[in-house]
Amino acid sequence: MDDHQLIPEITPQSRAWTCKVTIIEKLNTRDSFQTPGKKYKALIMQDTAGNKVKGMTYNEDILVIDERLQLHETYLISNAKVSPITNSFGFPDDNYRYLQVDNDPRL
């Protein structure tokens, strides 16, 4: 038995967590409207129970994460920064209101 958390169990206050997810969608890299010169790319991930979360990568981390996390592959994601999501990002799952920022090239 594994001790991985499901997406709804992870909050901004969570520490030392691991979630098993499959990359189900990679969105195109976009320019930030709020910060000129800043780029971002979203990944939609799904856990083993079907819950979804949007993971964001920024600037120079986009290429590294994009090469390491392949579409339809399964990964263990641990301790990424988790923030409350704002309406401008959209919700990949109505039951989940947080956003993972996957900006660690060691993933």
UniProtKB/TrEMBL annotation:
Domain Replication protein A 70 kDa DNA-binding subunit B/D first OB fold: 4-98
Any Pfam family matching the protein: DUF223
Alphabetized SUPFAM superfamilies for the sequence: Nucleic acid-binding proteins
Family matches, as InterPro entries: NA-bd_OB-fold, RFA1B/D_OB_1st
Highest rank taxon of the organism: Eukaryota
Protein name: Replication protein A 70 kDa DNA-binding subunit B/D first OB fold domain-containing protein
